Amino acid sequence: MLSTMPNIDTKLKLKISGLTRSARIMRAMTFYIPVIILVLLVLTAIFAPWLAPHDPIKVSLLERRLPPAFVEGGSMKYLLGTDSLGRDILSRAIYGARISLSVSLLVIAATAFVGTALGIAAGYLGGRTEAFLMRFTDISMAFPGLVLAMLLSVSIGPGFFTVVLALSILGWAPYARLIRGETLRLRNSDFVAQARINGASAWRIMLIHIFPNVINPLIIVMTMAVGFMILAEAALSYLGIGIPPPDPSWGSMVADGRGDIDRAWWISTFPGILIALVVLSGNFFGDWLRDKMDPRLRQL
Amino acid sequence: MTRFILIRLVQTVIALIGIAVLIFVLVRASGNPIDLLRSATSTPEEIENLQRQLGLDKSNWEQFRIFMFGLVQGDFGESLLKRRPVSTMLGEAIPNSLKLTVPAFVISMLVATALGVFAATRRDSFLDNGVKFVAILGQAVPGFWLAIMAMMLFSVIWGILPTAGMGGPAHYVLPVGTMAFFLLPGMMRLVRSGMLDVLDSEYIKLARIKGLSERIIVWKHAFRNAMIAPLTTAGMIMAGLVMGAVITENIFNWPGMGRLVLEATYARDFPVVQACTLMIGVMVLGMNLLVDIAYAYVDPQIRYQKS
User: Fold this and answer.
1) Quick check: B122 contacting A, CB < 8 Å?
2) Which residues have CB under 8 Å from A265's CB, separation 6+?
């Protein structure tokens, strides 16, 4: 038989019967492992100069394409081997954490700010403002960010802030859409009506009465964006329109090894695994946070 | 309905103009546009010619008018690198891109539908968990990395597939597979969650009470309705296609639009980048327009509410 029971019944049943032991362990694992990985990532980014065994951009032409320590021919000097210019992959990966994290955090801060402001304005003011802002949001969501990134890279040149800008220009749209929805829900509530009766201005209501009530969903979406932004930065850097060389970005490290896959598999492999691990952790943590704080947002 | 289509059409045109304005401003944002538009080897004479040809000695408004007229007539200028009209280059590249994107789209659509529906009807089964796992992993593993790994495995280590380039059927396996990977996880998730929502609804219960067979309930009653919601995310799918095309074509050396635009980006060949941006903008916005119309057609609420 097919299970077509309404969702709510299933949830109730789970609650009553409790989870099995292995399911509970699994659930704990999907929380603790991602959190540990994310904490390690932050610490790595902060303490990169102390952790990295070598200079990440120092070229050593005599030690090109050395295999990692655990492979035959590898040495303990370079634990994960060296790339085609003889740079230490481990050190580059450690410094790469800085780039991944700083780009994604900057982008998330900028987009969350703009998206929230526009979302609250659209939801609360309504009318033409809302129609215009939401149409603008729709277009921004549909426009391929990669194209914009290329356009920016050509016109203002590649670099750290070009990446941040490229990801931010379109990235605010999902926030605006979500926050507008939340604002619509709050707009007709009694406390907003009360504030309006008391003569509060639109500014005051939006800032003091509505904003604090959209913080929860905002934090959830910001957390869920971490993985996405790290992946986006890696993709741009991989394509050569992100962080310019010689600065180590995980994405460009994968690209560095592209021409060497027949003789040095480790150059591309390790940074890719790192990206996947970190993004996976970010997504799991975001899901966990959402389930804890606001299960309503399941659809995201 | 006509009114609705008309309003959407006007909005789409406005958005396109917006993109054109953005490009116009961006060329000039970085200082003198001639630095972007000339090639490194141009002589002062050529620069002056180009300047006159582009009308850069005229006022901003006049320049904008000329720029827009050129676009409307399909005149994107000449590639600085190849010295050929951009429209000819696009005409060669677009069919190659379609040879890659169309099969990838069809394959991932079919696979996503089959797996998504089966996962939803057998909720929490082994298959469902597998689908969820692939979807989660697919959203975290970088596609460009996976493509390189696949190339290493199939072409370098096992030597059963060609590494890159266009050619016989074997040349299609890896690129199409990579492209499909960009689309599959998202599509699968959409089909699954759409099906789950619909299977919960009252009319499915009614269909069951009527004693209809499972096959008819799932494929005729549930599936058709479940596919309406994912329609709105066609924009996301288009973005996936663009991203996938750029990355896949560059990894596998496929002479399509994705490679054209990225190579032009490296060479700072602005006319090509600008034409590709506009083309992609037209495709994405056109797609959204079609989806909006289709959506309004199947769901009258939208037609009335928004127009």
Assistant:
1) yes
2) A257, B152
Is the same domain home to B14 and B140? no
Phi/psi at A88 (5° precision): -75, 120
Q: What angle do CA B203, B206, B211 make, to 5 degrees?
A: 135
Residue-wise burial string across B56-81, b where 16 or more C-beta atoms lie within 10 A, e elsewhere: beeeeeebbeebeeebeeeebbbbbb
* A276/B270 touch (CB, cutoff 8 Å), yes or no: no
Both B104 and B140 in one domain: the answer is yes
Q: Which of B140, B148, B274 sits opposite A227 (nearest CB)?
A: B140
Planar angle of CA A21, A27, A30, nearest 5 degrees = 145
Q: Under a CB-based contact definition with an 8 Å cutoff, are residues A75 and A48 in contact?
A: no
Judge: A2–B288 Cβ closer than 8 Å, yes or no: no
Number of domains in chain B: 2
Q: Is A114 exposed, middle or buried (0-12, 13-18, 19+ CB in 10 A)?
A: middle
Chain B hits for A144, CB-CB cut-off 8 Å, are 238-239, 242-243, 280, 284
**CA distance to A96, A118, A165, B268, per residue, from A158 (Å):** 17, 28, 11, 11
Q: Which residues of chain B from 21 to 80 reach within 8 Å of chain A, CB to CB? A: 22-23, 26-27, 29-30, 36
CB-CB under 8 Å, A6 with B200: yes
Q: Do both B232 and B276 map to the same domain?
A: yes
> Are B25 and B128 found together in one domain?
no
How far CA A99 is from CA of A95, A168, B113, in Å, comes to 7, 16, 38
Give the domain extent around B33: 2-73
Give CA separation, A275 vs A37, A146, A285, B302, in Å. 12, 19, 15, 41
Residues in chain B: 307
Note down pLDDT in tens along chain B; length 307 residues: 788 888 888 888 888 888 888 887 877 766 566 666 666 667 777 777 777 766 666 777 777 787 788 777 777 777 777 778 888 888 888 898 888 888 998 898 889 888 888 888 887 788 888 888 888 888 889 988 988 888 888 887 787 777 777 777 777 888 888 888 888 888 888 888 888 888 888 888 888 888 888 888 888 888 877 877 677 677 678 778 888 888 888 888 888 898 898 888 887 777 788 888 888 888 888 888 888 788 777 776 666 654 4
Residue A82 carries which side chain, given as an amino acid letter?
A: T
* Closest by Cα among B259, B204, B233 to B89: B259
**Smallest Cα–Cα separation from A170: which of A194, A154, A197, A152?**
A152
Report how far residue A224's alpha carbon sits from residue A284's, in angstroms, rounded to the nearest whole number.
Answer: 8
For residue A77, the tally of other CB atoms under 10 A from its CB is 12
Candidates A94, A9, A7, A108; CA nearest to A43 is: A94
Q: Is the dihedral of CA B112, B179, A162, A233 positive or negative?
A: positive
Determine, yes or no, domain membership for B94.
Answer: yes
Structure token pair of residue B303: 């037609």
Residue of B18, B264, B284 lying closest to A142 (CB–CB): B284
Reported ipTM exceeds the 0.85 cut:
no
